[in-house]
Amino acid sequence: MGLHCDICQKTPKLGNQKTYRGKAKYLGGVGKKITGISRRVYKPNIQNIQIAGPKGESVRARVCVACIRSGKIAKPTKRQPFSLANAV
What we know:
By secondary structure, the protein is mainly beta. The chain has one domain (13-77). 11% of the residues lie in helices and 38% in strands. The chain contains two helices and four strands, in the order ββββαα. Strand 3 and strand 4 form a beta hairpin. The longest helix has 6 residues, at 65-70. It starts with 12 loop residues before the first strand and ends with a helix.
């Protein structure tokens, strides 16, 4: 499925786009009026990233940015840094 978060199941949602005209009251006008309403789609911000799988392996997933920022996913661990104790 396109534009679908693998973690939170977030999908595109339908809403309205409103068009206004006029000058706002706080700027000295008589207020803004709605002159048109049309349908639009709110799409989630989906990113293709590598996350840590259940066994610690690296898995590609489509995850929304809200899940990435909130810490719901774990990034895979990089390889261990070089140390002289293991090399000898």
